[in-house]
UniProtKB/TrEMBL annotation:
This is NADP-dependent oxidoreductase domain-containing protein. GO terms for molecular function: oxidoreductase activity. Residues 47-365 form the NADP-dependent oxidoreductase domain. Residues 1-22 form the signal peptide. InterPro entries: Aldo-Keto_reductase (IPR050791), NAD(P)_OxRdtase_dom_sf (IPR036812), NADP_OxRdtase_dom (IPR023210). The keyword Signal applies.
Length: 381
C-alpha cells in the first residue's frame, strides 16, 4: 500500500507540471488559434493585422499616447499566432510618415524580449519542445508597401525605399516588398521603373518575395509575366475586399494564375460593417468617414440586417461574421487593431467557419446593395 504522503506528493507534482505547462502556453503564446496558409513561396498567418491606423490622425485620430495600448493589442494577436503585418512607408500623417513601420519594429523587439524574459525567469525552457520550429512559424512577417511618389521614377529609388523601411524597422529583411499602387492610370511611364525596382529589391536580398496593392486582374497578370521573366516570386496581391465592395472572381482567378494569395484590406469597410454606426451615430465631424457613412448607410441596411441575423444565429458579432466571410472566400483579411477590445474582437473571427448557406446568404445581400463602397482612386483594372 502506497503511503498517503507519497500519493499527495505525486498529485501535487502532476498538478504543478500541468500548471507550469499552462503558464508556458500563456506566456509564450503556444495556444495559437490563427492558422497558416500559403502565399506564393512563403507561408503566412490566415489572418493578418493592418497598421494603417498606427500614426494616422486624419481618419483614426492617432496620438502617440496610444502606443502602449496599441502594443497590448499587438501582443494579443501575436500570442494568438498572427504573424503577417501589413504596413507602408507612407503610413502616418505628415511628420508621422513611417510611424507604423517604426512601431512594428519596436513592438516586435519588446515582444521577443518579454518572451525571453518569461522563459528565463521561470526556467520554462526545458518544457518547450520544437522551439526552433515554433520560432520559425511564429516569427513576425512584415509586408510593407512603397508609395510610387512622383520622384520615385528610377528603379534604384525603390531599392533605396526598401533600405529606408528596413532602417525604420531596424530589421535586415522584409517578408514581402509591395508596390502600394499602380501609376498606369495617370503616369504610365513610371510603371516600368517601379516593376524593375521592386524586382531589384528582391535581387538585393532585401525581401523574401514581392507583392502588389490596388492592382486589378489585368494589371496583376501583366506584372506576373514580368516577375516570372525576372525569376522573382510573388507572394500577395491586395485589394479592398469586403461585403460592401463590388467584386467578381476575376481577381481571385488572377491570383491563382500568378500563384499568390489575395489579401483583403478594409474587410470591415472602415468600420461600417461593425454595426456600431448609424445616421445618428457617425464618426466625428471632420473625419472623412462621416460623409462616406452618411452616403452608404441608408442603402446598406438590408446587408447590415442580414449580417446581424447571421451573427445572432452563430453566436458571433457582425464584425466577426464579416471577417470570417472574407476568409471563406480564400483571402487573408488584415483588420486593424489599436486596442485590446479590437484585437480580441478580430480573433473571434478565426477557429471556425461559416456554412456554405450562410456565405450564400451574405453574398446575396451584398449583391443587392444599391451603393457600393467607393474604390481606391488608384485601383486599376
Amino acid at each position: 500500500m502506497v503511503p498517503r504522503s507519497l500519493l499527495s506528493m505525486a498529485l501535487c507534482h502532476c498538478l504543478s507540471i500541468r500548471l507550469v505547462s499552462g503558464l508556458v502556453d500563456n506566456l509564450i503564446g503556444r495556444n495559437k488559434i490563427v492558422g497558416r496558409v500559403s502565399a506564393g513561396p512563403i507561408d503566412i498567418s490566415s489572418m493578418g493585422c493592418g497598421t494603417w491606423s498606427w500614426g494616422n490622425k486624419l481618419l483614426w485620430d492617432y496620438d502617440p499616447s496610444q502606443d502602449e495600448e496599441i502594443y497590448r493589442a499587438y501582443r494579443v494577436v501575436r500570442d494568438a499566432g498572427v504573424t503577417m503585418f501589413d504596413t507602408a512607408d507612407s503610413y502616418g500623417t505628415l511628420e508621422l510618415n513611417g510611424r507604423a513601420e517604426i512601431l512594428l519594429g519596436q513592438f516586435e523587439r519588446r515582444y521577443q524580449e518579454e518572451k525571453s524574459s518569461s522563459k528565463t525567469q521561470f526556467n520554462f525552457g526545458k518544457f518547450l519542445g520544437n522551439s526552433d520550429a515554433d520560432a520559425k512559424s511564429n516569427r513576425q512577417q512584415v509586408a510593407t508597401k512603397f508609395a510610387p511618389y512622383p520622384w520615385r521614377i528610377t528603379r534604384g529609388s525603390l531599392v533605396q525605399a526598401a533600405r529606408e523601411s528596413l532602417k525604420r524597422l531596424e530589421q535586415d529583411k522584409l517578408s514581402v516588398a509591395q508596390l502600394h499602387w499602380s501609376t498606369a492610370n495617370y503616369q504610365p511611364f513610371q510603371e516600368g521603373a517601379l516593376w524593375e525596382g521592386i524586382a531589384d529589391v528582391y535581387d538585393a536580398g532585401l525581401c523574401e518575395a514581392v507583392g502588389i496593392s490596388n492592382y486589378g486582374p489585368v494589371q496583376l497578370s501583366r506584372f506576373s509575366v514580368r516577375m516570372k521573366e525576372r525569376d522573382v516570386p510573388i507572394a500577395i496581391a491586395q485589394v479592398q475586399y469586403s461585403l460592401m465592395t463590388a467584386r467578381n472572381n476575376e481577381i481571385l482567378d488572377a491570383c491563382n494564375d500568378a500563384g499568390c494569395r489575395l489579401i483583403s484590406y478594409s474587410p470591415l469597410c472602415l468600420g461600417l460593417l461593425t454595426g456600431k454606426y448609424d445616421l445618428d451615430n457617425l464618426p466625428r465631424p471632420g473625419n472623412p468617414r462621416r460623409q462616406l457613412f452618411r452616403e452608404l448607410l441608408p442603402g446598406a441596411q438590408p446587408l447590415l440586417g442580414t449580417l446581424k441575423a447571421v451573427a445572432k444565429e452563430v453566436g458571433k458579432t457582425p464584425s466577426q461574421i464579416a471577417i470570417n466571410w472574407a476568409i471563406c472566400k480564400g483571402t487573408v483579411p488584415i483588420p486593424g487593431a489599436r486596442n485590446m477590445a479590437q484585437a480580441e474582437e478580430n480573433l473571434g473571427s478565426v477557429g471556425w467557419k461559416l456554412t456554405n448557406a450562410a456565405v450564400a446568404e451574405l453574398d446575396a445581400a451584398s449583391a443587392g446593395l444599391k451603393k457600393y463602397m467607393i474604390e481606391n482612386i488608384f485601383q486599376t483594372r
